[in-house]
Amino acid sequence: MTSPVLVALDYADTIDALALARRLSPELCRLKVGKELFTRGGPQLVERLQELGFEIFLDLKFHDIPNTVAGAVRAAADLGVWMVNVHAGGGRRMMEAAAEALAGRSRRPLLIAVTVLTSMTDEDLRELGYSEGAEARVQKLAALTRDSGLDGVVCSALEAPGLRASCGKDFCLVTPGIRLAGDAAGDQRRVVTPADALANGADYLVIGRSITGAGDPLAVLQQICSDIA
Ligand SMILES: O=c1ccn([C@@H]2O[C@H](COP(=O)(O)O)[C@@H](O)[C@H]2O)c(=O)[nH]1
């Protein structure tokens, strides 16, 4: 599997999610299961997607006290997922507890932390009381994530060049907010095309509605894969 594409299965119905998965191919993408679909389908749905041959990014963005997050990350690892995440805003002790929960496993998921959601702007951050903009805040949270022993971060591909420079080539950069040229941004604010995201240094591209909302999702996925090959 060399494709960097992670298709976000944001469905309200497990039947629709499984139907889309059956139209796609594990050769072309991994699948991301987020809060809505997991709340509908639970671990059984993740297992069914894995049985179809897909590696799963369990995008539940855990953010709680260290003991609780450690337990949640352990449960995700027991499910056999490929990647799991927490919120960097939970702080060093929370992230260290999450990393520690996976230590010593022969096979463990990649553990990454969300920095600043790609739906947020500098103005949104100001409203929350942060004086720095998204770029600076992402840098700060990524440094804390790396120092806490995690594998990488979720960020916008706009921040990828700076993070490559500061965090090195082995730090995993997972980038949602991906839009094909001409697609509506919707609720996303820091958006980048697939080719530009990879050129900026992203490792993985999270793509939801540009694929799932298409008339022929497989054709769009194939086009993206051939454009970035
Ligand atoms: O900062 C973040 C973190 C996670 N996401 C998730 O990625 C997908 C994006 O879907 P699109 O339809 O391509 O906008 C979605 O599941 C989000 O929960 C994010 O967008 N930004």
UniProtKB/TrEMBL annotation:
Biological process (GO), any one: 'de novo' UMP biosynthetic process
Per its UniProt record, what SUPFAM superfamilies does this chain match? Ribulose-phoshate binding barrel
Enzyme class per UniProt: lyase
Q: Cite the PROSITE patterns for this sequence.
A: OMPDECASE
Q: Which domain of life is it from?
A: Bacteria
Of the GO CC terms on this record, one is:
cytosol
What keywords is this UniProt entry annotated with?
Decarboxylase, Lyase, Pyrimidine biosynthesis
Give the positions the UniProt entry annotates as the active site: 59, 61, 64
Q: Which residues bind substrate?
A: 10, 32, 59-68, 118, 179, 188, 208-209
Orotidine 5'-phosphate decarboxylase domain location, by residue?
A: 4-224
Q: Does the keyword Lyase apply?
A: yes
Query: EC number(s) on record?
Result: 4.1.1.23
- Pathway membership of this protein? Pyrimidine metabolism; UMP biosynthesis via de novo pathway; UMP from orotate: step 2/2
Q: Which residues form a coiled coil?
A: none
Reactions catalysed, as given in the entry: orotidine 5'-phosphate + H(+) = UMP + CO2
Q: Name one GO molecular function term.
A: orotidine-5'-phosphate decarboxylase activity
- Protein family: Belongs to the OMP decarboxylase family. Type 1 subfamily.
What PANTHER family does the annotation carry?
Answer: OROTIDINE 5'-PHOSPHATE DECARBOXYLASE
What does this gene product do?
Catalyzes the decarboxylation of orotidine 5'-monophosphate (OMP) to uridine 5'-monophosphate (UMP).
What do we know about how this protein assembles, alone or with others?
Answer: Homodimer.
Q: By what name is this protein known?
A: Orotidine 5'-phosphate decarboxylase
* Taxonomic lineage from the root: Bacteria, Pseudomonadati, Pseudomonadota, Gammaproteobacteria, Cellvibrionales
